[in-house]
Design brief:
- It contains three helices and nine strands; from the N terminus they run βαββββαβαβββ.
- Strands 2, 3, 4, 5 and 6 form a five-stranded mixed sheet that branches.
- It has helices at residues 17-24, 66-73, 87-95; strands at residues 9-12, 26-28, 33-43, 46-51, 56-60, 78-79, 96-99, 109-110, 114-115.
- It starts with 8 loop residues before the first strand and ends with a strand.
- A hairpin with a 2-residue loop joins strand 3 and strand 4 (46-51).
- The protein is of the alpha/beta class.
- The radius of gyration is 15 Å and the shape is globular.
- It has one domain.
């Protein structure tokens, strides 16, 4: 049986890191492994990320950070075996494209006035 290719998703290239990882739910560790995110605790301009393998990362909300660049450019060595990132999620991530002038800005919708 032939599996269906995931649809291409387009996101803006200069979107905030926290909005991007809340949407993608993947974190590139410095070792090059992609971890699946279990919890994101926002604490102002920093966040505590807990992965499915119970590793904790403290990160800053930066568009120029190593993690933001690695996510946009899809630089990784593989998926974490302990986190158990499913194959469909990696295929969906691989089909995601980041464009400068096209795509979702991942703005949060507010019920009262539309956009936050």
């Amino acid at each position: 049986m032939k599996s269906k290719k995931p649809a291409k998703r387009f996101y803006r290239k200069r979107v905030e890191l926290f909005r991007l990882i809340e949407k993608i739910k993947l974190w590139p560790a410095r070792s090059g492994l992609l971890h699946g995110i279990k919890f994101i605790d926002l604490m102002g301009d920093q966040a505590r990320i807990t992965t499915h393998c119970n590793k904790i990362f403290m990160v800053n909300n930066s568009r120029n950070s190593r993690a933001a660049r690695w996510l946009r450019n899809k630089w990784f060595n593989g998926a974490c075996g302990t986190c158990g990132v499913p194959e469909w999620k990696l295929e969906k991530y691989a089909s995601t494209q980041f464009r400068r002038h096209y795509g979702s800005q991942l703005l949060k919708k507010n019920k009262d006035d539309g956009v936050l």
